[in-house]
Design goal:
Elements: H1 6-20, E1 23-33, E2 36-45, H2 55-72, E3 79-84, H3 95-100, E4 105-110, E5 115-123, E6 128-131, E7 137-140, E8 145-150, H4 159-164
Parallel strand pairs: 2-3
Antiparallel strand pairs: 1-2, 4-5, 4-8, 5-6, 6-7
Length: about 160
Amino acid sequence: MGTPAPAQKVRAVIEPAVRAAGLVLEDVVVAAAGRRTVVRIVLDLDDDAIGSLDLDTVGEVSREISAALDAAEPVRGAYTLEVSTPGTDRPLTELRHFRRARTRLVRLVLKDGAVLEGRLVEADADAYVLRDSEGGERSVDPATVLRGHVEVELTRGHDDEEEQD
């Protein structure tokens, strides 16, 4: 077995700092950018959290990640560190992605070609439950979902109030 790839080295070095902050290390990419290397880190809240990761927390964890990288030096030479969160354009491909999307408007494309849209109210290994605009709920077997994504909402209307009750 050879030496680990740069992204694996970085992941091993920063994972303890990310976990200590109660976050999930979603992705690590190490790429050449001219004479420098760019280290891109994507962080997310854990599966049970609802809402978004705030910039203050990202900033705090970024400092911890930077200190860990400087101490262990898993990347040769100068590098630029970019720490971000998954955007709304991230495809929903894993159960944890669906769990994180609870309360959001989602669009699912099923393997049979059908397209479903609704507010994701529950997500577990057995079912994704969508609520339509009239309040009706539909359970979807995750095995039938080809792909999913969060729909961008400019306003959420009165649904927020109903979900908090």
